[in-house]
Amino acid sequence: MTLTNRDIVELTAWRRKLHQHPEISNEEEKTASEVVDFLADTGPDLMLTGLGGHGVAAVYESGKAGPTVLFRSELDALPIYELSGVSHASLVPGKSHMCGHDGHTAILAALGRQFGRERPARGRVVLMFQPAEETGNGAAGVVADPRFSEIAPDFAFSLHNLPGVPFGEVRIKPGVVNCASRGMRIVLEGKTAHSSMPETGVSPMLAVSQLMPALPALGHGTFADDDFSMVTVTHATMGEAVFGIAPGHAEVWATLRTRRDERMADLCAAAQALAARIAEEHRLSARYDYHEIFVASVNAPDAVDHLQRALDEEGVPRTEEALPMRASEDFGIFGHKAKSAMFFLGAGERYPALHNPDYDFPDDLIPIGSRIFMRTARNLLG
Predict the structure, then answer these.
(1) Domain 180-294 classified CATH 3.30.70.360?
(2) pLDDT at 224
(3) How far, in Å, CA of 156 to CA of 339, rounded?
(4) Where does Mn(2+) bind (predicted)?
(5) CA atoms within 13 A on the CB side of 295
(6) In contact, 364 and 371? CB cutoff 8 Å
(7) Which of 244, 262, 301, 334 has its CA 20 to 30 A from that of 154?
(8) What residue spans define the domains of the chain?
């Protein structure tokens, strides 16, 4: 089963409509409503809304025994001003679809159209439109939702467009494809003082100056090493923006990254111990918390086999080049619930990079992505 020319025109127009009305993580209420409305005439057998926030799951049943196969896309945009210059540019100042989640959503909607016309021969298909991928809490919220048990998948598949890779080519491999990561916020507390008498206070200045190089030094190994770890300082602030007060408060933010989930606990412990030691040296108190937690995305060999078969049958070129990636992807949590795999679909070698302000999802990827997913579903479900 393939998309008609009319399907492609309508899916492209709808993708551009989503692009004009972006909503960032955890705010995707209208985007979710758009999905529900667009899929209404495909007659899903079950439509779950509000999953893990604003998530939507559309289910197409065969009525016969068989596996449950889930395909996932993301709903959220980014807090970035768009500078693409396209006619369908964002109408929301400071927010835009600079990662292509609007295009991924259109690819899943294309599956909905096709399964609305012809159900799978056995089992069922779940189209999972997930919120809050960019902040790492979306997939975790979906699988923690009690209603997730109604759609518990045997297989879960996803894709992400990838600028820098030739258009329409795929990057895929078994094993780790995206690193685990989390944001660590270190808060240092001392005592303010008059800037003419800094000795009467307790300043975090020297502690911050030590932490800035010491945190990245916790990184270990090369990226080819399974024990690879990396720390990137992303933000620091100290005191108030005035000249008369010596500071008593500071924050240092860093992203901790590992290739394996098991390594993350060790890296967190090392970073906490480092912060505590430096704080104590400078008579400061220290506390820390974690944000935007992503587990490693690990492709199950069985799931990869199904995708690779579909790619070969559809004549889509594939390699393992450029994998794994240091970047994180919250699809990894689905791998804790099902045999899962994600592939990366080339957007063009000279295409603007993800999260760049001039990026716009290439519409011609919609039929390619949907073909790959449809072939995967038909092979698994008949």
Answers:
(1) yes
(2) 82
(3) 6
(4) 99, 101, 134, 160, 355
(5) 15
(6) no
(7) 262
(8) 5-177+297-381, 180-294
Those residues with Cβ within 8 angstroms of residue 80's Cβ, 6 or more apart along the chain or in another chain: 94, 95, 96, 98, 355, 357
CATH architecture of the domain with residue range 5-177+297-381: 3-Layer(aba) Sandwich (3.40)
C-alpha to C-alpha distance for 181 and 21, rounded to whole angstroms = 29
Q: What does the alpha-carbon distance between residue 275 and residue 252 come to, in Å, rounded to a whole number?
A: 10
DSSP symbols for 34-90: HHHHHHGGG--SEEEEEETTTEEEEEEE-SSS--EEEEEEE--BBS-------TT--
Q: Are 22 and 77 in contact (CB under 8 A)?
A: yes
Render pLDDT for 159-197 as a digit per residue (tens, 0 to 9): 999 999 999 999 999 999 999 999 999 999 999 999 999
CA-based R_g, the chain, Å: 23
Question: β-strand 249-258 against 180-189: which pairing, if any?
Answer: antiparallel
Torsion of CA 202, 205, 207, 210, to 10 degrees: -160
| Closest listed residue to residue 98, CA positions, set 19, 209, 211, 3 | 19
- Determine the pLDDT at residue 10: 98
Residues annotated within the binding site are: 99, 101, 134, 160, 355
